[in-house]
Amino acid sequence: PEIREALRTGEPVVVDDVASHPLLGEVKEAVTSRGISALAAIPLTVQGKTLGVLLLRASRGSFSPAEINFAWTVAHATAIALRNARMLEGLRGQAEKAEAQVAELARYEDFFQYSSDGMVILDESGAIVSLNPAGGQVLGLDPARVRGRMFIALASPLSEGTLLELLVCVRQGLVCRNVDIEMSAADDKVLTLSVCGSSVKDGRVTILSFRDVTAARATER
Hints:
The protein is of the alpha+beta class. It folds into two domains: 2-92, GAF domain (Beta-Lactamase, 2-Layer Sandwich); 113-220, Beta-Lactamase, CATH 3.30.450. It has six helices and eight strands; from the N terminus they run αβαββαββααβββα. The strands form two sheets. It has a five-stranded antiparallel beta sheet, with helices on both faces. A three-stranded antiparallel beta sheet has the order 1-2-3. Strand 7 and strand 8 (205-212) form a beta hairpin. The longest helix has 48 residues, at 65-112. It is rod-shaped and about 100 Å long. The termini are far apart.
């Protein structure tokens, strides 16, 4: 019961006399039979969160104020160590996940480098992870310098809605083919691209391929 109380209140629970303290209730006899005369439950609290409880037991007398203060200091240091360990474990997990994603994307990038069509890989937010050389040539952009940019920002105002719909469909697991989208290229040129899209990694990664059909669409009008 003393541990539950410390967890509930976030405050130290000090029982100077186990035999008479009302908090122990039905467990008094079991505790005293072990020769325990006093106990203290110190919460391991950091930044308002209780991560556990430091439990102290005495077989003779009770705890002095100095002993309780020392236990509180130890508990606080332990709580910080636990928090840091959990944060480190979380960061390690994130790093491992990121490394796995990079390795997964590297397989696609090796293929993209030799594709004659423009190809781009987008992350969950729609930011450019990789643009292949053919895509950079079509758009007149340096693939290394566009990483991290939102791909939809390259669309002309009239085609932003169309591109957004395509991305939503692709993330839902659909394969979209030959969707015409006007994109802004270097030197303020506006190109008409025929775009195909699909997704991998449960929709978390989007792959688009595209061809410049500006001239073809102009002759059709």
